[in-house]
Amino acid sequence: MTEFQLTINGRDYDARLGERLSDVISRHGVSFPHHCLSGYCEGCRVQLNSGSVNDHGTNLRRRIIPCQSTIAGNADISFDPSPKPSNLRGHIERIDRIGEVVKQLTVTFEKPISWIPGQYFQLESRGTTAANVYPCFSLGGRTEFSSLCFIIEKQANPTMFAEIQQDKLRNGKACRIKGPYGTSFLRREEERLVCIAGPTGFASFWAIAVSATFGLANREKILVLDESYNTPSFLEAVNWMQSHKLDFRFVDLAGQSEPQFQQNLLQTLPDLNEFDVIHASGNADFMQNIKQATDSQKPCLHLLPLGEKIENLCLNTLVAHEY
Questions:
Q1: Which of the four CATH numbers 3.40.50.80, 3.30.470.20, 3.30.2000.30, 3.40.30.10 does domain 193-309 have?
Q2: Using one digit for the tens of pLDDT, what is the confidence trace for 178-232?
Q3: What is the pTM of this model?
Q4: Which residue, of 54, 78, 111, 177, has the fewest CB within 10 Å?
Q5: Radius of gyration of the chain, Cα coordinates, nearest whole angstrom
Q6: Distance CA 6, CA 21 (A)
Q7: Other C-beta atoms within 10 Å of 234: how many?
Q8: Which helix H or strand E contains 225, and what residues bound it?
């Protein structure tokens, strides 16, 4: 069996030809951020610094998915530190009705929760379906100590939305979260930040947008939202962006053919280039459109997939692959 060397965050480990990178990492007991380990959640992307791997089409500006990539020679990878996933118990403090198709869920815990904007948790409560949800801030840009706020959109999470409507998720009910997961989180970089919220993608977009406004005040930012968010339900968020003098733009990103999607996106981002950093959130089709629409400009892409289709794929494979 051909042996190679995989360097992980500066340390060398033996690896076998054709072995999945995630299996190499697991075999040597190295802790790294991951979730479904089936390629759907984008939660385990790492930086390929050098060397030979078969990325099986997952390479985005030298960032690959290790659960889908295999050893083809010596290689060097790295990933940023992030909070270690854990299990926490809490209760639903309140549920606010934002609009006909949007709810705001606040969950309180006994101690502070560590997470980075752009990461997500798996939330479950007795008698309900487990769901992947992105914590964010209230539509007014507020956060609370020892609490997490979740924006639940009916289109993104119809099952969870229905359970709130049916009072299966209600004020005071106990719940549990696992996480955080994901590597597409906000980083302290100098490049222009472009946040894009496709249909169903508001929560993670809002977490990154608000955090970057407060924590990265001098970094250039452009916020792009699907026009479906230009409604009274999200008026508080629009007012907040206006009050903080942010550059935000509404564009039609829903139900478009690939060429029309690209045209709409690049018309609102005419100077998009390889030095930009994009955080894009939405469903599986939206993720594919973003990849193809920005292929020529080659910005650094951080994808935040949402929707029950992706959730179900993650949840169904998590038990089989969890380390």
A1: 3.40.50.80
A2: 999 888 899 988 899 999 999 889 999 999 999 999 999 999 999 999 999 999 9
A3: 0.86
A4: 111
A5: 20
A6: 8
A7: 22
A8: strand 221-226
